[in-house]
Specification:
Blueprint (H helix, E strand, L loop, with lengths): L1 H11 L12 E7 L1 E6 L4 E5 L5 E5 L5 E6 L6 E2 L4 E7 L6 E4 L2 E2 L11 E5 L14 E6 L2 E6 L1 E2 L5 E5 L3 E2 L4 E7 L4 E6 L5 E7 L3 E5 L7 E2 L1 E7 L2 E6 L4 E3 L4 E4 L8 E2 L5 E4 L9 E6 L4 E7 L11 E7 L5 E7 L14 E4 L4 E7 L10 E7 L6 E11 L1
Parallel strand pairs: 6-13, 15-23
Antiparallel strand pairs: 1-7, 2-5, 3-4, 7-10, 8-9, 8-11, 11-12, 14-16, 16-19, 17-18, 17-21, 18-19, 20-23, 21-22, 24-34, 25-28, 26-27, 27-34, 28-33, 29-32, 29-34, 30-31, 30-33
Length: 383
Amino acid sequence: MIVFGIASCKKQTIMGFVPGTGAPTITSVSALSSTVNDTSVTIVQTYDTLGNVTTTVDSNKTHQTFIPDDSTKTQGSKQNYYVIHGTNLGTATTVSFNGVSAYFNRAYGTDNSIIVSIPLATPTTGTSATNKIVVVTPHGTASFSFTTLTPPPTVTTVSTNDFYQGSEITVSGVGFATVTSVGISGTTSSATIVSQTDAQIVLQFPSVTVNTASLIFSYNSAGKTVMVTTTQVFNNLDNAYVIFTEGYENGWFSNSWGTGAPSTAQAKTGTTSWAATYPKGNYWADGFGNNAPLQTAGYTYLAFWLKGGLENYTLYLTADTRPGGFGNSDQTYPITVPANVWTYFKLPLSALSLQGTEHFGFWIPGPTDQDETFYFDDVVLLK
């Protein structure tokens, strides 16, 4: 009996405490930690086998440091860590937020606390959002009122950053299911929500007067309407000088040594782009022409989307008004074009010398390995 009693005691204290056998209770919830930024510079010195020293300076002067935070919470964000305080918690078998079980390790808790992270799958709207933490032990169940916040809409990619009246942009990321409206910064107008899921929202744009704008998402979180503004800036092509979108505009046409023409084989927006073909092994220039000199006054950028060829290339800007004229081997303004992807270029007109030109485009010394076709879309001057 004595031996058995000692063994039983060890079994009960293997976690460093003796779990209670009464019904569990939850008295409060606190944040596990918070982050602060500091601007310290880290210097690391390493030595090789000969004793030579190498000094490395961390040029990133913004660091995040985690510090304890025991402030009481009644709401929290997904994937953040919280401490559940109470009694008789040491034998907890499940912890759930709005009915979704959360992972926890009892070795990091006590009979009076559980450390847990809110699961990403926790519902925050609708009938499933019960706004409850539930702890279950072999001796009972405890419930606590706690609101899991809806994450803000977060943009990872956009189909394009150009818009015009009636155009549509697909925005991808997370948190779009609860968006109720999408405003356009600098205006009182809103984009029309064509469709939406949590991962994607499709927007149609009205006519607005601003040259550039960000999106302002309004969404529901914890019973309140919250607004967040995107860091992405979108260009209003209705206020731009258009050279090519779905076709030539403002008197422009193809001015190319080879084939340069509208194509439906590829398009960044709409259904049509401008395809420029560069034959293998040749010095070649393709571009746009006009019988009237280009007037750049009042505009700031030459902008366009460009889909690369089969390899990475460097193209060089050429124009009547640049050194040597159109088609000359001027290499003073190169652009790097990645293979097989659409890349957005927004080039400052102050560096391009395009005022008064009637022909401009890009030339390439090659290509070396095969014929290449580059696709241009939404070629415009932006204010």
